[in-house]
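Worked example (supplementary).
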Amino acid sequence: MAEIIQEEKSKGGKKKPKTHIPHIDMTPMVDLMCLLITFFMLVGAMSKAKVMDLILPERIKDPTQQQAPRIAASRTLNIILGPNDKVYTYPGNVKPEDYNNLPPLTETDLSANGIRKLLLDKNRMLARRITDFKEQVTAGKIKIPQDSVQSAISKLKKEDDTGPIVLIKAYKTANYGDFVNILDEMNICGIASYMFTKITWYEDKMVEQAAGITPTATPTASASTK
Amino acid sequence: MPKIKLPTKSPRIDMTPLVDTFAVILTFLMLTTTMKQPEPANVDTPFSISEKPTPDFNTITFLLSTDNKVYINFDNGPDTILKYKPKILAEMGKNYNVTFTDQELREFEKYPSSFGVPIQKMKEFLDSKTPAERKALQTGIPMDSTDNQLANWILFARKVNPNIQACLKGDSKTAFPVVQKVLDILQDKNVNRFSLITSLEAVRINLDEIQQ
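After joint prediction of all chains, the assembly is encoded as:
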């Protein structure tokens, strides 16, 4: 690829030995390097996976210390991850005694018009407050260091007492993607309090009724660890 | 007025400094990029909006494949600064009456990706040289109630390195009972904080749209 430049003959006709260094055209090399740099920069930025934190309540091993958490039934929203990426919700709580009279489940899905709409509807005040706060930070109306934005938001969440308390449960045919998606929805909608708990047998029954599954007596993985 | 003569030859730009700089940047980027090691099972992580990057060390990652097998990985690969990988294996071997030679421990330290080998087969796994042989031995970590090796891995990992952090890496299609089981085992060992490994996705919510 070297391009050697010949100097024009001088008019005098006298030949001098040429001392000129031959020029090398570096344009293709620069092009290639540019491409490689772009590639490596993108690979470096993209390959890093992200993590989402999940904190579960500590398990109390002593059965005498165990007791159901006291939460207001009016604020409770149960979300059950069902089969085929379906999501079932019902408000309040159900006691095992009324297994003959189970409340109906509302079927929805994990799309933006499904569960997100429902959650934002219930969590409107807090979600509005968080979005306003974020907007004001971006607009520069609130002067706050970037590091403390998160803690300010969690303070907003802590002060909130109108939003739903969400209990997430998973039916045995749900998959991991649904689980991550529903936790992600909690973050998107800014739900202040949510918890992942084990599904109860009557909720199993509710899902089976709603989805039209004939109950099977196969021992699930969650049951065998006990 | 005299005509201005345009030079017929295009001016030449000396690109040498440019090339020099590019070469330096390229070398830097090539050295800092860590190539992803092939995992024993293909896993497509689900998406989330979380922007927190994965920690580089002090992690124990559980890889949950679609065929319900569990694999373990310490510190995302071979280069542990803290050098606790061989210690965990030695402790684990002591518990199951398997003694590992120094060479096997070194091999374990160098092993670049997740492993899913029962401890009884671990010696064979570390001694084998071809990837095909190794792949055949990757049958997932046993975690039945009779032979709960996963629980012991967690126990010894936490004993050797108390700061270890549990990460879960699952495929979107992994059945939930497996996830529940791993979470149960971890909670039995008093691990209540988990990091779920996800890929980044941008989501914007519009409250006004959902007003009605």
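Two points are worth noting when inspecting this output. The radius of gyration of chain B is 25 Å. The longest helix of chain B spans residues 16-32.
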